[in-house]
Amino acid sequence: MLAVRGLCKSFGAKRVLDRVDLDLSSGESLVVIGGSGTGKSVLLRCILGLEVPDAGSIMWNGAPIGPGFMDAFGMLFQNAALFDSLPVWRNVAFRLLRTMPKAQARAIAVEKLARVGLGPEVADLYPAALSGGMRKRAGLARAIAADPRVIFFDEPTTGLDPIRAATINALIRDIVDETGATAITITHDMSSVRAIADRVALLDQGRLRWQGGVAEMDTAADDYLRDFIAGRPRPMARVPEA
Ligand SMILES: Nc1ncnc2c1ncn2[C@@H]1O[C@H](COP(=O)(O)OP(=O)(O)OP(=O)(O)O)[C@@H](O)[C@H]1O
Questions:
Q1: Sheet containing strand 29-33, strands side by side
Q2: How many structural domains is the chain composed of?
Q3: Interior CA angle at 39 toward 37 and 41, to 5°?
Q4: Cα 16 to averaged position of ligand 1 atoms, centre (Å)
């Protein structure tokens, strides 16, 4: 469904993505891991069309990424990225308001808020009144508001304590299962990987170093992957500069 081939991206002399190939089937949940500065966000930005690759292709359902794809995806941004000047329901309904009457968009927003565990009383609050966990939930409600076929999760647990992180991870997995959406998550958080992934891809120095099923991850022979999973320090020469 999503096929990335030979993706290259450099900034000046720095090659950030180096011939990355990636395949994602419909309904699959892929988690991309890798150290800081290994190109995870650049890969995501290329897929979203926010960055122009130097070489390679990104196809969705057999065609280059275009407006159809832009209408079909939802995104949970790092730190939720809510608009502070809009009440929560308008944040959630942001895209819906372009295509439907206000009352209908608001009803869907309230329904999506309920799905992520936020009651109707939250709808009229402003983001400043929400805790970090509630902001994430509201961001998640916005990501699923238009029933996307593909959902991107950018560092979904950043800034959350371990219990809230586990709750958000479980919610993401439930939503992905329920909706049958294809999901791409980028994270350093191994608890997210275990909770969300069907398949894992490890980026290292711009190359896709390892990919496989989440169940194969713990027995993989790759030494960097093993250190990454265990959080073991490595000699600085082996740790890419951010
Ligand atoms: N617009 C840009 N101009 C110049 N360099 C950039 C730009 N965007 C990213 N980079 C560089 O590309 C490299 C990869 O960045 P990227 O943000 O993709 O890393 P990451 O794997 O997402 O890291 P982190 O986990 O810390 O967010 C970094 O060295 C970064 O400085």
A1: 73-76, 150-154, 182-186, 29-33, 199-204, 207-213
A2: 1
A3: 100
A4: 7
CA–CA dist 93, 125 (Å, integer): 14
Establish whether residue 240 lines the binding site of ligand 1, counting it when its CB lies within 6 angstroms of any ligand atom.
Answer: no
State whether the beta carbon of 205 lies less than 6 angstroms from ligand 1: no
CB within 8 A of 29, min separation 6: which ones?
Answer: 173, 176, 182, 183, 185, 196, 197, 198, 199
CA distance to 70, 141, 147, per residue, from 75 (Å):
11, 10, 11
Q: State the pLDDT confidence band at 241, using cuts at 50, 70 and 90.
A: low
Q: What's the CATH code of the domain at 138?
A: 3.40.50.300
Torsional class of 80: left (φ above 0), alpha (ψ -120 to 50), beta (otherwise)? left
Residue 236 — very low, low, confident or very high, per pLDDT cuts 50/70/90? Answer: low
Residue span of the structural domain in which 156 resides: 2-238
ipTM for the complex shown: 0.96
For the stretch 101-155, pLDDT in tens is: 999 999 999 999 999 999 999 999 999 999 988 999 999 999 999 999 899 999 9
Ligand 1 pocket residue status of 35, Cβ below 6 Å: no
Residues near 96 by Cβ (< 8 Å), separated by ≥ 6? 104, 105, 108, 109, 145, 146
Nearest residue (CA) to ligand 1, atom 17: 41
